[in-house]
Write a structure and sequence with these properties.
The complex is a heterodimer of chains A (156) and B (291). Chain A has helices spanning 25-32, 88-96, 105-118, 124-130, 142-151; strands at residues 4-10, 13-19, 51-54, 57-60, 73-75. With 156 residues, chain A is of the alpha+beta class. Chain A has two domains: 4-79, Ubiquitin-like (UB roll); 88-151, [2Fe-2S]-binding domain (DNA polymerase, domain 1), CATH 1.10.150.120. Chain B is of the alpha+beta class and 291 residues long. Chain B has helices at residues 14-23, 37-42, 78-82, 85-90, 92-99, 104-109, 112-118, 124-132, 149-152, 227-233, 240-253, 265-286; strands spanning 7-9, 28-31, 50-53, 63-66, 69-73, 135-140, 143-148, 153-155, 158-159, 166-173, 180-186, 196-205, 208-217, 224-225. Classes of the chains: A alpha+beta (156), B alpha+beta (291). The complex binds flavin-adenine dinucleotide and FE2/S2 (inorganic) cluster (2 copies).
Chain lengths: 156, 291
């Protein structure tokens, strides 16, 4: 069963590599590119821990095959860092205590980024809808919603 | 969570896809958005020998008006449907149904064709397709054919499509002027598959019900019409009592709903009645009923 040659950009850098067709985008990014910020929670699309942004859309990378990323522009949580500085969304999660064990955090941050890219001043309902595909077993969500409000420059 | 190995093909045209599918054996699977198939591959509940990914076939990604209806290419994502002004303005029932599907991540990748071909009995699109009597366009190596919604859904996760058939388009007729509609469901959590749901269209002439169509989903192996309840409504003066008795008829008419760790069969049946009554009431109000 042959490998597939794909080209894509990830966090601004271009790659052309051979991938196993049955590898998910998540597995390729973690195991082949060694970007381990993105986590695998469930592998079935239910938890959102593996969220990335592909061509401007939030996706779960456990439910996308690596070959499906051919020609795409992928952003992972590592791509939010600019010149060593944390992205305002990352900073807001720290400030509000939106992180406990941290396992859901990369996915939450990508979902927040995708939400704010379209809706810079979201209401609480927009936030609940935008983050509906991301589960957190620790925080109870309140601190996470506060992080999103803070990142969007709104009063909590 | 790792799928078993398979060969991967990504044709760029429909013709190429169809001829590939005609050549490969029956263990080949079509891949669209992957939001149902990839979890199944990850859990190894599906082990195809080859995948034909339709993702690069741009000609199957469109939403357009098509003499009195809206035609949607099979590869159009649920997200694109949700954001279509045409759908929102001309076919709001499809917009509402789309909003009930899963989460942003899933709708960003899941396609309308994939939803219909997957045919989960609790999914929204199969139910809307049956409610509106949509037509399904299918291509295979032997040509093109059209299947009506009433014949498309065969049983649990099974449609009239063969392994080498590509669903290319679904065409929804628009609702006539004055027809009221509703599409609602009950879920444990926002975005879950429905425990039970109902879609309704209704028209009134004076105070009398001149048309009624009721589709229930999540309660049988496919979405189902409640024909006895429809008949109980048509020709009658609409009232709260009539709606309550039609809902009771719909509840009694369904077979044996699934029992699982989300809900018992009896609870699903109960919900089917509640959803029917609520959907009838909302649809009737949209049709101008004042109660
Ligand atoms: C966490 C989660 C929650 C979900 N919640 C819901 C929900 O609430 N409601 C809901 O309706 N769905 C839900 N889904 C399913 C989702 O909507 C899927 O996207 C959809 O059912 C399948 O579409 P797809 O494009 O991803 O198809 P794929 O997963 O790629 O394919 C699904 C099946 O259809 C076949 N197929 C696909 N396209 C075609 C075609 N054009 N012609 C012939 N066969 C084809 C494939 O061979 C496969 O058997 C959920 C999924 C997840 C992961
Ligand atoms: S690991 Fe992808 S959604 Fe849970
Ligand atoms: S912080 Fe632990 S799962 Fe969210």
């Amino acid at each position: 069963m042959g490998k597939v040659n794909i080209s894509f950009t990830i966090n601004g850098s271009s790659h052309q590599i051979d991938v196993e067709p049955q590898w998910t985008l998540l597995e390729m990014v973690r195991e082949q590119l060694h970007l381990t910020g993105t986590k695998e929670g469930c592998g079935t699309g239910d938890c959102g821990a593996c969220s990335m942004i592909v061509d401007g859309r939030l996706i779960t990378s456990c439910c996308m095959l690596a070959p499906q990323a051919d020609g795409s522009d992928v952003t992972t949580v590592e791509g939010l860092l600019a010149n060593g500085d944390l992205h305002p969304v990352q900073q807001a999660f720290i400030e509000t205590g939106g992180v406990q064990c941290g396992f859901c955090t990369p996915g939450m941050i990508m979902a927040t980024k995708a939400l704010l890219d379209r809706t810079p001043k979201p209401t609480l309902d927009d936030i609940r809808e935008g983050l509906a595909g991301n589960l957190c077993r620790c925080t109870g969500y309140t601190k996470i919603y506060e992080a999103v409000m803070t990142a969007s420059g709104q009063e909590i | 969570m790792k799928p078993a190995p398979f060969d991967y093909h990504d044709p760029e045209t429909l013709d190429e896809a169809v001829s590939l599918l005609g050549r490969l054996d029956d263990d080949v699977k079509i891949l669209a958005g992957g939001q149902s198939l990839i979890p199944l591959l990850n859990m190894r509940l599906a082990r195809p020998t080859a995948l034909v990914d339709l993702g690069k076939i741009a000609e199957l990604d469109y939403i357009r008006e098509d003499n009195g209806g809206i035609a949607i290419g099979a590869l159009t994502t649920q997200r694109t449907v949700e954001r279509s002004q045409l759908v929102k303005d001309r076919l709001p029932v499809l917009y509402e149904a789309t909003r009930l599907i899963a989460h942003p991540q899933i709708r960003n990748r899941g396609t309308i064709g994939g939803s219909l071909a997957h045919a989960d009995p609790a999914a929204e699109y199969p139910a809307v397709a049956l409610l509106l009597d949509a037509d399904f366009k299918v291509r295979s190596a032997s040509g093109e054919r059209t299947i009506g919604a009433a014949d498309f859904f065969v049983t649990y996760l099974t449609t009239a499509l063969g392994p080498a058939d590509v669903l290319t388009e679904v065409r929804f007729p628009l609702l006539a002027e004055g027809v009221g509609w509703s599409f609602i469901e009950m879920t444990r959590r926002h975005g879950d598959f429905a425990l039970a749901g109902a879609g309704v269209t209704i028209a009134l002439s004076g105070g009398e019900c001149s048309h009624a169509r009721i589709v229930l989903f999540g309660v049988d192996a496919t979405p189902v019409r409640s024909k006895a309840a429809e008949q109980a409504l048509v020709g009658q003066e609409l009232s709260e009592e009539l709606i309550a008795s039609a809902a009771q008829t719909a509840r009694d008419e369904i077979g044996e709903p699934l029992s699982d760790n989300h809900a018992s069969s009896e609870f699903r049946r109960h919900l089917a009645g509640v959803m029917t009554a609520r959907a009838l009431t909302e649809a009737a109000r949209r049709a101008g009923w004042v109660n």
